[in-house]
Backbone:
């Protein structure tokens, strides 16, 4: 990779510095990590240069962990404190955001789940067929006597949860593979799946337990969180705009700064 040089204030940021910084920017490719690192270092240098141009002399400052900041980091904090001023989020703005995004303020569906896994490779049709047959047999046995679920989980399940009688605890969206979740969430409380459920792990017999249905949170309960989110978003936009102005004035080359 032979990236273009990154020039800030007439000075080139060494490739070795960008390479070291890239370790702090996980990305799908080395090129993407390099670009993110180059942008971060260019932004940092722009802000330091502007703080020094303004003759700022920051007082001793500490980070969130109580550690003293470097002079450069303290300069950046002092500059942003001086130049960036954003309004507080008023109640009308918070209410509008709340009304526009109801899904963000709804508790997730929670279902107590347990299962018996008959392990099989989904790519092996014969093995999956046998596993499905075994699962159907288990379902029939449990329809006759649901109290046997833990016993059968301990003796038949290929999942480590067999040590807890197949118990998986409370499950919410995103915690299990999709076919399992879809089947579980469609089941009524305290029931056993009527048909086997196939996933990439094999074939499952599922038991659903207590359900806690989604609940829409009242505005009063989330007002503070919304205000904090809106103010942070406003601050980030203001900082990005300020950096874009500095970059244009400085004629930064070799890296595209996000506005």
Residues:
């Amino acid at each position: 990779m032979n990236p273009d040089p990154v020039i800030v204030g007439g000075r080139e940021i060494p490739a070795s510095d960008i390479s070291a910084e890239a370790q702090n920017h996980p990305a799908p490719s080395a090129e993407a990590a390099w670009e993110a690192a180059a942008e971060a270092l260019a932004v940092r240098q722009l802000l330091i240069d502007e703080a020094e141009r303004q003759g700022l002399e920051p007082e001793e400052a500490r980070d969130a962990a109580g550690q003293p900041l470097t002079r450069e980091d303290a300069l950046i904090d002092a500059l942003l404190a001086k130049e960036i001023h954003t309004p507080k989020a008023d109640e009308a703005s918070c209410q509008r955001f709340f009304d526009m995004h109801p899904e963000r303020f709804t508790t997730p569906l929670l279902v107590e789940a347990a299962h018996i896994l008959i392990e099989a490779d989904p790519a092996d049709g014969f093995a999956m067929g046998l596993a499905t047959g075994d699962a159907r047999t288990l379902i029939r046995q449990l329809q006759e006597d649901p109290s046997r679920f833990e016993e059968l989980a301990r003796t038949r399940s290929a999942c480590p949860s067999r040590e807890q009688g197949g118990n998986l605890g409370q499950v919410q969206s995103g915690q299990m593979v999709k076919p399992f979740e879809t089947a579980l969430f469609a089941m009524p409380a305290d029931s056993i799946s009527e048909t086997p459920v196939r996933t990439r792990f094999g074939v499952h017999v599922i038991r659903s337990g207590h359900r806690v249905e989604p609940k829409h949170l009242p505005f009063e309960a989330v007002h503070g969180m919304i205000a904090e989110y809106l103010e942070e978003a406003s601050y980030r936009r203001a900082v990005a705009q300020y950096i874009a102005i500095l970059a244009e004035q400085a004629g930064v080359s070799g890296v595209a700064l996000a506005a």
